[in-house]
Amino acid sequence: MATRRCQVRVSGTEVELLPERALYWPEAGLLAVADLHWGKPESFQQHGIPLPTGVLEDDLERLSRALRSTGARRLLLVGDLIHSRRGLTPAVRERIATWRDGHDVEMVLVRGNHDRHLKHLPPEWRMDVHEEHTDEGPFRFAHHPEPATGRYSWAGHLHPVVRLSLGADRLRLPCFHLSASVGILPAFSAFTGGLDMTRRAGERIFVIADEAVVEVSRP
């Protein structure tokens, strides 16, 4: 099924919000995602909590799909790439290294709070690391959603979701939350909780509904 992107203009620049839970900036050939939390199921499993397998495979396939569909030349990881040091088992490290070998793109990590658990990324992942943020044209990319003087900030960390209801039916769906100065990306990993977001004056919410990104019009 063909995916439906949502084009928006931010700081005078066209970007695309993708149903793969990613932001694409065509002019720069840049794909940005946040909160992948690689190794999270493995972290829980080491504490004796049984969790379904296949989370990493599903997330890597979705990330590959976003790279293929956009033709992005660069991948920017906006924090919390990993969940914990203990979750990076040899199998997880090897699987990600194999995935990395299949993608000839520049990859940059802006560290998030979870990434502080690991001083150095596995070298076979071939990722450049920025400790606090990176500035690109009119944008700043940082893990924590804070305004930046002179630039529009893209961030993660909050795992934004929106509650939708129709009669007795209720859904919590991942979303993009855009204010006047900060845009919050949805958590890329499907294995995360989320913070309920509401739309206030001057803000926009774009919900991810299956294969489409749809703006929520009501407050």
What secondary-structure arrangement, pairings included, does this model have?
Layout (H helix, E strand, L loop, with lengths): L5 E5 L2 E6 L3 E4 L4 E4 L6 H6 L9 H16 L3 E4 L12 H12 L4 E5 L17 E3 L2 E4 L2 E4 L9 E4 L4 E7 L2 E10 L3 E3 L10 E2 L7 E6 L2 E5 L3
Parallel strand pairs: 4-5, 5-6, 6-7, 9-10, 10-13, 11-14
Antiparallel strand pairs: 1-2, 2-3, 3-4, 8-9, 11-12, 12-13, 12-15, 15-16
Quick structural overview:
By secondary structure, the chain is α/β, with parallel strands linked by helices.
Describe the protein's architecture and organization.
With 219 residues, the chain is α/β, with parallel strands linked by helices. It has a single domain (6-216), classed as 4-Layer Sandwich (Purple Acid Phosphatase, chain A, domain 2), CATH 3.60.21. The chain has three helices and 16 strands. It has helices spanning 40-45, 55-70, 90-101; strands at 6-10, 13-18, 22-25, 30-33, 74-77, 106-110, 128-130, 133-136, 139-142, 152-155, 160-166, 169-178, 182-184, 195-196, 204-209, 212-216. The strands form two sheets. Strands 8, 9, 10, 11, 12, 13, 14, 15 and 16 form a nine-stranded mixed β-sheet that branches. The longest helix is centred in the first third of the chain and has 16 residues, at 55-70. The radius of gyration is 17 Å and the shape is globular. The two termini are 30 Å apart.
